[in-house]
Amino acid sequence: QSLKAGKVSARETVGHYLTEIAKHDPALNAFITVDQDGALRQAEEADQRRAEGKALSPWDGIPIAIKDNISTQGLRTTCASRFLENYVPLFDATVVGRLKKAGLVIIGKTNLDEFAMGSSTEYSAYGVTHNPYDHTRVPGGSSGGSAAAVAAGEIPWSLGTDTGGSIRQPASFCGVVGLKPTYGWVSRYGVVALAPSLDQVGPVATTVEDAATLFALVAGTDPRDATSAQAPNFQVPTWDQNVLRGLKIGVPEEFFSAGLDA
User: Fold this and answer.
1) In terms of pTM, does the model score above 0.85?
2) Which of 71, 108, 142, 173 is placed for a possible disulfide with 116 were both Cys, Cβ 3.0 to 4.6 Å?
C-alpha cells in the first residue's frame, strides 16, 4: 500500500527485503539464488515508470521470489540439483512473464526438495531450509523455501508449485497462506514437471487477499500449455468481513490424531 501510495520507492522496498534476506537467510537457507543487482535495477526501472505516470500495474515494483523449478530468463534455475547448478534459462515461464508484465521485481529463487521430490525441503543439494519459527524443525515442502521466506519477512510474496500438497503443507507449517489453484487455471509452461497431470503453480503470501491478488496476476489461459483451461482470468472479489457470516466450518477430527505436532 505504501508503494502504491508513493510513500516509499520501489528501490527502498527492494532494499529493505534484500537487507532482511542478508540478515536471516544465512541461518534460514530459504534462497538458492539472490539476484541483488538485478533486483535493484528492476526496482529503479519501476520507480522511473511511476515518476513518468507509466506504472505497469498497481503492483509495479513489488518484490517477489520464485521457486527454483520455475524458469527465469537470465537467472539460474537449479531445481535444487547439482545437475542444473549452472543452468541459466533462455526463456521465462509464463507465470514469470506475467509477473514481469505487471512490473514485479524478481528478487531471487527459493529452495526446494531436489526436483520437488519431497515434503520437507531437507533434500536439496544446496542445504536444508529451516522453519523460521524453530530452526530445529522443517518448513515443509517441497515449496519450503517459498513459505519460509514469506514467513520470515524476507519477501512479501512468492510462487511455489503444488503436486500433492507442496504449497499447502509448507504454508501450514510456516503459518502463511498458500493456494493450489484448480488444475489448468495457471500455466505450467516453463515449470519443471514432477507429475504433469497434477502440478500447479500457486501463490504464497501472508494474507488471503494478497494470495488472491498474486493468483490473479498469474492465472489465465496460455496457448503454450495444452492443459490450460479456456476460462476467464480470475478476478479478486470484493472483500467483506461478513462473507462467512452464517456458515459453519467442519474440522475432521481424524486430521488431528495423536502423533501430529505440526
Assistant:
1) yes
2) 142
pLDDT tens sequence across 50-93: 999 999 999 999 999 999 999 999 999 999 999 999 999 999 99
Q: Is 142 a catalytic residue?
A: yes
Choose, from 71, 81, 124, 142, the residue flagged as catalytic: 142
Q: Where are the domains of the chain?
A: 10-256
Quick check: is 67 catalytic?
yes
Set 9, 67, 120, 180: catalytic member: 67
* Residue-wise pLDDT tens digits, 208-221: 999 999 999 999 99
Q: Which CATH architecture has domain 10-256?
A: Alpha-Beta Complex (3.90)
Which tens digit of pLDDT belongs to each residue from 81-122? 999 999 999 999 999 999 999 999 999 999 999 999 999 999
User: Cα separation of 17 and 23, whole Å?
Assistant: 10
Selected catalytic residue, list 119, 166, 187, 228: 166
Give the orientation angle of helix 36-51 with respect to helix 10-28, to 10 degrees: 160
Q: Is 81 a catalytic residue?
A: no
